[in-house]
Design goal:
The chain has 159 residues and is of the alpha+beta class. The protein is 37% helix and 17% strand. The protein has a four-stranded antiparallel beta sheet.
Length: 159
């Protein structure tokens, strides 16, 4: 990856629908070399997929709940089972194994508290959990899908 690749990624993170010719123009490349770089980053898994970012309130999932889970089960089989259960819930949009006091953290999106209660009851019916704690987001201060690129390892292309 070089500085041009980083610029391409920055542009794509802002608007994945931007035409390759325009991206090329903004990074100082013609269309074909720019397209080749994008294809290479897709092949290498740097670009995993291109998606549409939706407005949660316009698709009726405007309530965000952060769900902390503790368990007494700390083995590979249980973790795989739990992960499989979570895969069944489209409301879970992020799912992490954590260090510290909480074993797992989920970000869940639902229309309202009643829908969250329904989600919670379905979840606990499918797997045994030691403790589940929910925190409802009162308002979103910052949200982005763009990753910081300042930390990307860049080949010194000035040589």
């Amino acid at each position: 990856m070089d500085k041009i690749d980083r610029k391409i990624l920055s542009l794509l993170q802002k608007d994945a629908t931007m035409p390759v010719a325009e991206i090329g123009r903004k990074v100082g490349l013609s269309t074909t070399p720019c397209w080749r770089r994008i294809q290479k980053m897709e092949e290498d898994g740097v670009i995993q997929r291109r998606v549409a970012v939706l407005d949660p309130s316009k698709v009726n999932v405007g309530v965000t709940v952060f769900v902390s889970v503790k368990t007494n089960e700390h083995n590979e089989a249980w973790m795989r089972k739990f992960s499989g259960v979570i895969d069944e819930f489209p409301e879970v949009v992020e799912f992490y194994r954590m260090s510290g006091d909480v074993d797992y953290l989920m970000r869940v999106v639902v229309p309202d508290i009643h829908a969250y209660d329904t989600f919670y009851k379905r979840l606990i019916s499918k797997i045994n959990l030691t403790d589940v704690s929910s925190a409802f987001a009162m308002g979103q201060i910052k949200y982005t899908t763009a990753l910081p690129l300042d930390f990307a390892i860049v080949v010194d292309d000035d040589k």
